[in-house]
Amino acid sequence: MKVKLPESQTMGNANIPNADEIIQMEKALSQRPSFSIRFRITLAFLVAFLFSFGIGVSSIFYISVMNSKQNFFDHATKFAFTVEQARRHEKNFFLYHTRTDLFDALSNIKSAEVILKNAASDMRILLKHETFKNLTNNLKQYQAFLNQIAYWHGSKDDSAKPDESEIEGQLRIYGHQILTDAMDLMDQERNNVHKVAQTFMLAAGFSLIINLIVMIWVATELARQIVQPLGRAVQYTQRIAAGNFNLVIPQRKFRDEFSNLAIAINRMIFELMEKHEQLVQSRKMAAVGTLTSGIAHELNNPLNNISITTEALMESLDDYTHDEIMDMLKDIFIQVERSSATVRNLLDFTRLGKSKIEAINVNDLIGSTLKLVKSEHTLKSVETKTLIEDHLPAVKGNFRNLQQVLLNIFLNGIQAMNEGGMLTIKADKTDDQYVKIDVLDQGCGIEKKNLRKIFDPFFTTKGVGEGTGLGLSVSYGIIQEIGGKITVDSDEGRGTTFSVYLPIANDSEA
Amino acid sequence: MNNEQQISILVLDDEPVVCKRLRPILEKKGYAVETFFESEEALKRFKEKPFHIVITDLKMKGLDGMQFLTAVKELSPDTEVIVITGFATMETAKESFRKGVFDFLAKPFKLGEISDIIQKAEVKVRGRIS
Q1: Is residue A146 part of a domain?
Q2: Does residue A283 form part of some domain?
Q3: How far apart are CA A494 and CA A15, in angstroms?
C-alpha cells in the first residue's frame, strides 16, 4: 500500500521547489544585513591605511623626541665647553695673576649661565629637578667666588682680604663639580639619544612585522571571503548539473554580492525545474505513444469479452443453465475489473501535477509497473521473474515518477530481448540507506562506448521515431532528485543490469 | 444442409472467454469447432487435420497470429482465415489481406458480425468443395 504522508513532511529537501519557496528563499537571502565585498575591501584598505598612518605618526613623534634630545645634548656640550673654558682662565689666573684671565673666566661663566638658562625649559623636562638645582647653585657659588676674588684682587686693603688659597681651593672644588656634572650630563644625554634611536629602530622593526602580519591576514581573509562563496557557487552548478534541484539556502549571517548570485542561481533552478518538468511530461507522452498499441490491446480484449458474453446471454438466455449464466456474469465482472485497472494505470502514469514525496512499498511499485508492460513482454515472449526480499522497508519517492523510472528500464530490457528471454527483477536492502532494485535482461547489451552516454538526454540507439532518448535521462533526474542513484552494467551480447538505489523512508515519515 | 459435409472451424485466441463463447454458438450453428489458447498447439492440431475455417487473434505470446496464419495458408491454401484483433492498424490489416486472409475483424466485435463473416466464408468453402 502507498502510505500518504502528512503535508508538512512531504516538503523534504528532495522536493521540487515551487514559486513560493523561491520567493521565500529570495527574501531570506536578501533580508540579511548587508556586508558587501566592496565595503569589506574598503574597510581592509582603511585598516591598512590607519596602520601605516600610525606608524608614520609614531615615527614623527620619535624623530622629534630624538631631535630634542639632540638639542639638549648640544646644549650640554656647549655648557661643558664654556665651563671648561672658564676653568682654564681660572687656572691661568692663579698661575699668572693676570686680571684679564679672571674677567675671561667670569664672562665664560656668565655665558654658561646663559646657556643653562636658555636650555632650562628643555632641560627641566629631561633632568631631575634636584640635578638642575644643584647645577645652578654650584654655578652661582663658583661665580660668587670668582667675583669675590675679582673684588679683592687689586684692592690694597689686605686687612679684610680673605685667604686667597682657601678661595682657590673652594673654586677648584665647585669648578670641578660643575665640570663633572656637565660631563655626566653629556654622557647621560648621549646615552639617552642612543637609547631613543634604539627604541625607534625596534619599534620600526616591530611595526614592519606587525604590518606584514596584518596585511597577510587581510589578504587571506579577503581572499577566503571571496573564494569560499565562489567555490560554493561552483558546487551549486555541479549539483544542479547532476540533477539536484534543491534551492541555495543562506549560509552566512550577512549578504553581499554573492547573495545576488545565489538569488540568480535560485531563479535559474526554478527555470530549469520548469523545463525539467516539461521534459518529464514530454517523455511521459512519448511513453504513452509506445504503449498505445498495448493499451488498445489491453482495453479492446476485455471489451470484446464483455460484448460477446452479453450478446450471447441476450440472444438465448433460456438455453443456458443457472450455473452457466452465473459463470458468464462472473466473466463479465472480471473483464470490467480488468479494463478499469488498465485505465487506472494509464491515468496514474500520465496524470500531471507536483510530485509528492511519499513512502512507497517496493512490492507495489514493481507489481504495478510490471502490469503496465504486460502486453509488451508477452508479445516479445519475454518471461519475467521477480525476487523481492521479504519485509523490505518503504522507500522515499513519488509513486508515479518511480513507476516511470522502472517502466523505462523494463521497456528497455524487453526491447533489448528481440529473441525473447528472461527479465529478472531483484529487490533487496543494501544497507540502512537504500533499497536496491536490479533489473537484469538477457538482451543484446550496450556497447562500452555508449554505456557512458545512455543517461544523456536525446541519446538513443533506437531508430528514428522509435525512441526519444529521453527515458533514461528523465529517470536519472527523478532518482537524483530523491537522493538515490541509478547505475548500469552491461555485458555486450549477454545482457544488461540496471540498478536503482532508492532511499529508505525514515520511520517518522513511513 | 444436413446432408452436406460439416464445416470445421479452428478458433485461436489467448483470451479464454472468446473461445468459451464462440464454441457453443458456432456448434449450435452446426459447425465442428475446436478452440485453442496457444498458437503452437493450434498449429500442431492443424498439421494433423486441416480445418475449413480458421479464426485467429493477432497479438499472442510465442508464435503470433500473423506467423500462424502464414503457416496455415502454406499448409492449406484453401482454408479461409478470419483475423480478429484488439489493435487493428492499417499495416496489420494490409499485411493480413496480402497473405490471403478472408476477412479482418477488430475487437470488440458483435456476434452477428462474426457469424455473418463465417457464413460468407462457409459459402466460399462450400463452393470450392462442390
Answers
A1: yes
A2: no
A3: 38
ipTM, 2 dp? 0.89
Q: Which domain holds residue B44?
A: 8-88+104-129
Among B18, B59, B64, the residue with its CB nearest the CB of A304 is B18
Cβ of A300 within 8 Å of Cβ of B106? The answer is yes
B interface test, pick of A298, A305, A336, A414 with most B CB neighbours within 10 Å: A305
Contacts of B89 in chain A (CB under 8 A): 293
Average pLDDT per block of 10 residues along chain A, 510 residues long: 34 54 81 84 86 86 83 83 88 85 88 82 68 82 83 67 77 84 81 84 87 87 86 86 78 83 86 79 67 73 93 89 93 90 68 71 90 77 87 88 88 84 90 90 84 68 52 78 86 88 72
State the CATH number of the domain containing residue B78: 3.40.50.2300
At which of A140, A174, A200 does a domain end? A200
Cell representation of residue B9: 472451424
End-of-domain residue from the set A168, A200, A232: A200
Domain count, chain B: 1
Question: Is the residue at A254 inside a domain?
Answer: no
pLDDT of residue B74: 94
Q: Which residues contact A238 (CB under 8 A, 6 or more apart)?
A: none
Residues A381 and A480 placed together within one structural domain of the fold:
yes
Asked whether the beta carbons of residue B15 and residue A301 sit closer than 8 angstroms, the reply is yes
B11 to chain A nearest CA, in Å? 15
Residues A8 and A94 in one domain: no
Phi/psi for A299 (5° steps) reads -95, -40
A3 with A118, same domain: the answer is no
Contacts of A287 (CB under 8 A, 6+ apart): A349, A404, A407, A408, A411, A471
**Non-local CB neighbours of B42 within 8 Å, separated by 6+ positions:** B10, B12, B36, B56, B68
Question: CA of B21 to nearest chain A CA: how many angstroms apart?
Answer: 6
Instruction: Determine the distance in angstroms separating the CA of B129 from the nearest CA of chain A, rounded to an integer.
Output: 31
